[in-house]
Structures are given as structure tokens and as C-alpha cells.
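Backbones bend. Our protein:
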Amino acid sequence: MDLVYNLLVALHLLGMAAVVGGWIAVRSGRTVIAPIVWGARAQLVTGLALVGIASAIKDDDHTVNNTKIAVKLVIALVVLAAAEIGAARGRKGKDTGNLLDVAGGAAVVNVLVAAIW
């Protein structure tokens, strides 16, 4: 089970890299690109899987702070919503407004919550 957990952690980090890296790469273009959307999706799915596994294992290495997880889930949903809406607007040729910055900034906030809390 540790192998699966560690693979999910790696995928979770790659998702974060896609969102934050994509945000930094295209920030001047103001367009939400596919890696940002797929990274946000990966973050949500792998995050939920990690919480499920950590809740099931019940040892000192896999304790779950449900309040922190709830905060991170809400932020992850903001990231995903901003990325999906921004990408959809971009495909239609509409202005994406600040959705790119909302997705990228919220992803950074989520990293800070994970690391500092």
C-alpha cells in the first residue's frame, strides 16, 4: 500500500507543478492552457485518493487532519472551477478575465496550506 500511496503523492505533486508552472508560463498571455486544467483535475482526484488511503491506514505516518483537508478541498475546487471556466471561455474566444490568476494563485495558497499548516 505504501507504493500506491507514494505514487499518488508523486502524481499529486506533478499536478501541482502543471498548474503552477502553466500559470507562470502563460501569465502574460492570460489564457488558461490544457496542462493547467489537467493538473487541477489530477490534484483533486489524487488528493481525494490520498486522504482515503491515509484514513484507511491509521498509523503515525498517515494521520489525517480533517479540518486542513476540508480547507484544501475547498481551495482545490476553486482552482479547478477557475481553470475549467477559464479554458471554456478561452475556447469560445471570450475574455478569461482573472481566472488564470485565480487558478494559479489559489494553487499556490493550497501549497502553502499543505506545507505550513
